[in-house]
Amino acid sequence: MKCHLQFRLRNVVSPADERTMNPSMTAQDVDSAHIEVQLDLPAKPISPDLFGIFFEDLSYAADRGLYAELVQNGSFEYSSADCPDWSALSFWQLTTANGAKGSLSIQDANPLNANNPNYAVIRCDSPGNNGEVAISNPGFDGIAVKKGETYDFSIFARRRPGETGSLQVRLIGAEGDLLVSADLPSISTEWAKYKAPLVPAKDDANARLVLSTAVRGMVFVDMVSLCPRKTFRDRPNGLRADLAETIAALKPRFVRFPGGCVAHGDGVKNIYRWKDTIGPLEQRKQQKNIWRYHQSLGLGYFEYFQFCEDIGATAVPVLAAGVSCQNSDFARGTGQQCIPMEQMGAYTQDVLDLIEYANGPASSVWGSKRAAAGHPEPFRLKYLGIGNEDAITSGFKERFKMLFEAVRTHYPEITVIGTVGPNPSGRDYDEGWKFAGDLSVPMVDEHCYVQPDWLLKNLGRYDQYDRSKSKVYLGEFASWGNTVRNALAEAAYMTSLERNGDVVHMFSYAPLLSKIGHVHWYPDLIYFNNAEVFPSVNYYVQQLFMSNAGTQCVPSELKLDGTLSEGRAATVSVVRSGNDLIVKLVNLAPTVLRTQIQLAGDERIEPEAHCWVLAGDEKQINPGDPRAKANVAEQVIKPVTSSLKVAREFSVNAPAFSLTVIRMKLLK
């Protein structure tokens, strides 16, 4: 199926019936467009992986974000390296009752695992008069629990020989009331895991977890965990269901992970090492987050791959290119650091081992570790990012080339995605493109954080790209805000990406998630707290494009008169699998756009189409956004779905400040 578009737009005096949409509308409030779709001219292919998502552990996107764990610092590995005010006992509080005496301390002799050296010691010197020594944890801004739902508690513990050792676990509500309690079995003298299901008696948005002992002696505890049994796909150690479902509803073609700056880290010692994130939780090697908090790595590479598979998305892991972020230790200005060349052989092997972990048979060294985690079949990895908006220095070039050539030699079927710096122009951009061309890198990762006007003025950017060079992954993209205007400017730009889907093979908005009260970067696609999820207006634009992605697009020209020369864009795409015709109209003007659509050719069309309209005031922001007015009950802006009568020639009114998507079925 092939299409051709012609647009003829002009200022006209609208018919009287148009003004019934808005009693105050004047003749100048409605403009006209004419789209002629010719079904017999050549079409350009659109990459099947064009629209996806980018996940970074930023703004608490992982721990108590997508990762469902409710206890904060349950492994006692927090430190001042994460945050200057933190220690191994941060978010834990010692309490005593009824005259009991005791203490709480940290030790690291005879740990549960060398990768997780710290553990807590709860010491009861005297139980007093039926008293107890207890420690409590408030989770991440409180622990939100629901009545009747099961929460799986677990802990590793041991006691000293000759002592009894006992523990009780409780959930205490915000008002001090008992929600649920359980006594753990007798504690062994060797590290062992203890479990208890907890079912709260009522809802509470701000509960805390309490561990207590009422007998003299010392109990050593580590890896304290509380996780809802109801997770996404009901997986143990799983993902927060409502957040994961919100992401899945986007229907992304791919997921880039584990982050941008997180991947190459705050200095060489902080580079994200994928091998530290797999295997049993107690064996994973936690570390600080470059965004100045902690990574428990409970959400690790296995969980990322599994999530991609669960939502039908292609996995796109990103590894450091042997260098750290050029903004490392910004306060002291140490800048980009390079892994010493004598260590690059081992690091290169780590990169190759990741591909074996993802794609190797269960009998291979790293494939067997994937199988041991419960996934004997390969994950079918086909993309691998190396580097993230790095400064294109000589140190970077030497290491990237080493890694790129190793992957190309051992796994030629893998598409390596390089990097061309943090901006859509400038020295690193120019040097990165030249370097990618010299090495024949198949795809490069561009980043673009700009104002809406920049997007509207650059709708033809990719029309000019050389089709013989590297393909483009626009990996981090956003206009600076979550207003309707921001979202529609992004939609307009995305029509140009779809129009150039033969050279722009992948695209993702960034960042994906942000916890309210812990926003490290603005804007974001999805905001959340412990109990609710708040998609931005931008989210719904992404959802409409991902749910209505085409396989082919013809060149189109949009002609507008006078002041209407900016702010509108359109594409037509054909989905071969369903023989659908998809029209996307972006109207970024304060007037209605009356659009006449004419289908030329021999194709017939079903008389009813699906139509989605996302519209609002250009300055509106969805509730949950940190810049929304807290004292105003704003209406959620999201698409309105309807059916639309269509024929070989029909019209549609695109409201002011709107995105309209029409999906028609062509009859064979």
CATH superfamily of the largest domain: Glycosidases
Contiguous helical run count: 10
Shape: globular
The level of helicity is: 10-25%
Number of domains: 3
Biggest sheet character? 8 strands, antiparallel
Structural class: alpha/beta
Radius of gyration: 28 Å
| Total strand segments | 36
Q: What's the CATH C level of the largest domain?
A: Alpha Beta
Strand content: 25-35%
Please report the distance between the alpha carbons of the first and last residues: 10 Å
Low-confidence stretches: 1-27
CATH architecture descriptor text of the largest domain: Alpha-Beta Barrel
Mean pLDDT: 91
CATH fold group of the largest domain: TIM Barrel
What's a concise summary of this model?
This protein is 17% helix and 32% strand. With 668 residues, it is α/β, with parallel strands linked by helices. The protein has 3 domains: 5-40 and 568-607 and 646-667, Immunoglobulin-like (Sandwich), CATH 2.60.40; 51-61 and 231-549, TIM Barrel (Alpha-Beta Barrel); 93-228, Jelly Rolls.
Question: What are the SSEs and their pairings?
Answer:
Elements: E1 5-11, E2 30-38, E3 44-45, E4 51-54, E5 93-97, E6 101-107, E7 119-126, E8 132-137, E9 143-145, E10 151-159, E11 168-172, E12 178-183, E13 192-198, E14 204-213, E15 217-228, H1 241-248, E16 254-257, H2 261-264, E17 287-289, E18 293-295, H3 301-310, E19 314-319, H4 341-359, H5 365-372, E20 383-386, H6 394-410, E21 415-419, H7 427-439, E22 443-450, H8 452-457, E23 471-479, H9 484-499, E24 504-509, E25 513-515, E26 526-528, E27 533-535, H10 537-547, E28 552-553, E29 568-575, E30 580-587, E31 592-600, E32 604-605, E33 608-615, E34 640-645, E35 649-654, E36 658-667
Helix pairs in contact: 4-5, 4-6, 9-10
